[in-house]
């Protein structure tokens, strides 16, 4: 199955898109139901699974880390500036 994703980039991209959308909607649903830990857990599991089937998991780890840090910094700035309140 791992070779299916390496050999067929279109299948990998479509699967990546679908799983991202499912995880995103599930996360929003979990936040509404005050169970945000479940959404974060699903995203973590899907990220790990995607890395396992990736051609270059080291680059994905770098990308995930950079995106997480950037998101944390931007969200912190927005919250501390008063632009967003929780």
The class by helix and strand makeup works out as mainly alpha
Rounded Rg = 15 Å
Order of helices and strands: HHHH
> Can you count the helices?
4
Strand element count: 0
- Report the portion of residues in β strands: under 5%
What are the salient characteristics of this protein?
86 residues, 2 domains, mainly alpha, single chain
Question: Can you offer a commentary on this structure?
Answer:
- The protein is mainly α and 86 residues long.
- The protein has 2 domains: 1-55; 56-86.
- Helix content is 84%, strand content 0%.
- Helix 2 (9-32) runs antiparallel to helix 3.
- The model has no long low-confidence stretch (mean pLDDT 84).
Secondary structure topology:
Elements: H1 2-7, H2 9-32, H3 36-52, H4 57-81
Brief summary:
With 86 residues, the protein is mainly α. The chain has four helices and no strands. The chain folds into two domains: 1-55; 56-86.
């Amino acid at each position: 199955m791992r070779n299916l994703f390496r050999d067929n980039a279109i299948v990998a991209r479509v699967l990546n898109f679908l799983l991202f959308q499912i995880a995103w909607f599930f996360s929003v649903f979990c936040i509404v139901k005050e169970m945000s830990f479940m959404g974060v857990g699903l995203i973590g599991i899907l990220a790990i699974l995607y890395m396992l089937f990736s051609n270059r998991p080291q680059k994905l780890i770098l990308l995930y880390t950079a995106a997480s840090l950037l998101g944390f910094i931007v969200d912190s700035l927005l919250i501390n500036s008063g632009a967003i309140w929780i």
